[in-house]
Queue: 3 jobs
Job 1
Amino acid sequence: MFAIAIHGGAGTLARDQMSAAQEREYLDGLGAALDAGYELLARSRSSLDAAVAAVRVLEDNPLFNAGRGAVLNRDGMAELDASLMDGRTLAAGAVSGLKHVRNPIELARMVMERSPHVMLVGSGAEEFARTQGIELVSNEYFRTAARQQQLERHLGGAVSRENELEAFGTVGAVALDAAGNLAAATSTGGMTGKRWGRVGDSPIIGAGTYANNAGCAVSATGHGEYFIRTAVAHDICARVEYLKVPLATAVDAVLNGRMKQLGGNGGVIAIDQRGEVVLDFNSEGMFRGLATSEGRREVAIYR
């Protein structure tokens, strides 16, 4: 048994504001990422390989808020964050405040596998990237016309909680491989118009990303401050491990319980060692998909 799930962000996403052509473009992008990860699992590659491969495809797709399509900060720059975790060893790697790394998820993996650290930030992280031969690009590479327009609307006061898709967003993947090992990976451009070096939950192990074979693997998306305050990813995994509750029960209790009570909005994807996959959100929509070795495959945006 093996399986993979992905997400491409969650938020207020009115169905009547998306054309059929736009919806198809998003679904095709999700499908390409899903297939990239699933293909590796089918070839008996590790869950870590699969999660990174899926996230890399999403980072390269300008539709999603990570890598190529990252939103812009107040100064018109892309600032990128990513993390991943190996459920077998509890090894983890994270990077934050990147401005020149084409695929942040790859650098996060290098931090995990080739450094004694868990998190590197800013110029130091990019200095480490150079020592590892990671591809660096101009910040202009990340700046798309759509994101520039979103920033201009934000600076003009047009982006509100009713238009959260433009303000927030993340991509991620969780996977179970044939050996029974779990992994989680998350990557983001953060919030449109962010200031002061703001960092959300995506690169924070235990908040936006967590994996433990004894529990589950989780990748989150949404308003990161709330995910950090409630340690969403770790809390879900801890409930599965210690309380022995079903994965869906753990996800619902955290996402639609304490975090929502605080005002948090977003979603998570999660998978356990039995291959149960949960994709849940308390927002209007979440770009998501899953594929299992038992023949289940789906991509969706709305409920």
Job 2
Amino acid sequence: MKIYITLGDPAGIGPEIILKSLPSFRQIKDIKIYGNRNILEKTAHDTGLLHNYRSIRNMIYDCTSYIQFKYGKPSRKTGQVAMQALKSALNNAPDVLITPPIVKDVIRQNRPGFCGHTEYLADFFKTKEFAMVGIWRNKRIMLLTTHIPLRDVFKRIDPKTVLQKIMLLDHGLQRYFGITHPSIGVSSLNPHAHEFSLGEDEKIQSSIVSAKKRGIDCYGPYPADSLFDRRLDGFLAMYHDQAMIYLKSKKNGLNFTLGLPIIRLSPLYGAALDIAGKNRAEASGLTAAVNIGIKLFKNVRRYEAKNKCTDN
């Protein structure tokens, strides 16, 4: 099980949370930090974490340039370092990839149109069927749409697209979470569901009916303000904020990219530029990402073994 952690943006909290969380995993074989020793050592020195740095020094795969940087001040160069770490990790074929936060704006200076890890990884692996899934404890929330203007969400609500995501979530809950016959709740687009719909929630309803005909245990559409309190195995939200307002109000939420040939996870927070370099970053999200990554990898192994026996 090759577990690779990328550096993130050096001007943000990525190096700090690596220094805080990775010492507890130093006994795991084949876990590597893709980045730059000098950047991590500087961060350790500035945040009083030199002891942590020394304990993980042998885990660092030195694959990026060293640059001068200022905490809280991302630049074209810090964006380049973040992408160098990501590319190097991918080129070495990870089983589990953990990505600390990057700063998209500075990456766009070198890569116009860059949307984020999710879309970049899908393009890298040439994956067409993929989705962003937020995880918190036993809540697994897939997003129909991710980083697009809200007005464009309405154009993406069609029965075929919603059904495809329901089917992808159903398969993902079985493969990665070990749930044999998962139950799925689907959000409405509008407040109070059908009450304010101009046809969108009726399209979502038709997708749910189609999913049920395929044997998927699927319910809704339910208003997003109460959906996630239901006792279901997974949820499908129509747009980013429906899911993220709930998930980011919790501690240790994770972002899981479903549909890739590898397991990719990241903590559900950004680069936190206002506290970078101050030894104030909460690292438990990165710790949770590694632990859940190991668990998901084992679940996939069991799922594949079970289905191989069934096929034979």
Job 3
Amino acid sequence: MVGLAALTFTVLEPTGVERPLVVEIPHAGLLIDPSAMASLVAPSRSVGQDADLFVDELYAGAPRLGASVLVAHASRYVCDLNRDETDVDSHAIDGGSGSAHPHGLIWRLTTEGRPALNAPLSAAEYERRLNVYYRPYHAALKRLLDSKLERFGYVVLLAAHSMPSSGRAGHLDTGAERAQIVPGTRGRTSAHGSVIDCPERLAKRYNWSVVHDQPYKGGYTTGHYGRPPTGVHVVQVELNRSLYMNEHTLERREPGFSATRSYCDDLVKALAALPGQPLKPAS
């Protein structure tokens, strides 16, 4: 168990001058351990399509730019780290009594609506996943945020994600084309305006389209940790996958990959350089 836990996420400390910025990447991983594999019937293609493939590589320059980075390695089909611990489909856990949402902490269906589990998980397996994956990840994230908050008086958390270029079957916007950059801030409530506007300002330099909060307004991490009055500012940034990859073959695509990586570097630099005074709690 200790060996497995050590593989579930990585914390990358700044190699450049430390900045009050944390980048968390919860969905890029593909790890599925044997216990989780035994109950999983989702097609391997769905595992790839529902991962934020390559986002960890796109933000690989963040430590050099002074950010702390938290990267999860497990597939979201094992445990979705951007959900509340209690967001459990009543049909996904044996004896569960949570919501009927099939894409909660444990995904019962793929995005296209195919079965992801061969049967509801036992309560013991659910608790195992919480203890091995979910709780250690969020404990590490909280430690990073608390450390930055103590040192700088404020902290910016960039929740780094990617999204399909159009709504797939099972999405509320099925078939609709999506913007190239989607900042999610729960209706501009999870961060100061300077943080919220930063992804859009940079995207305009690349001639990329931006829509805030649609179709993703920010998940659990954004809502739970984003508390501007306390000095914690969170913005979730969704990158349109068509910018940097072939969504059918699931391969990187150039020159888009290099351009998107440059955008991610620029975003990290810009967020790290924001003036601290409006971001600090009012005295």
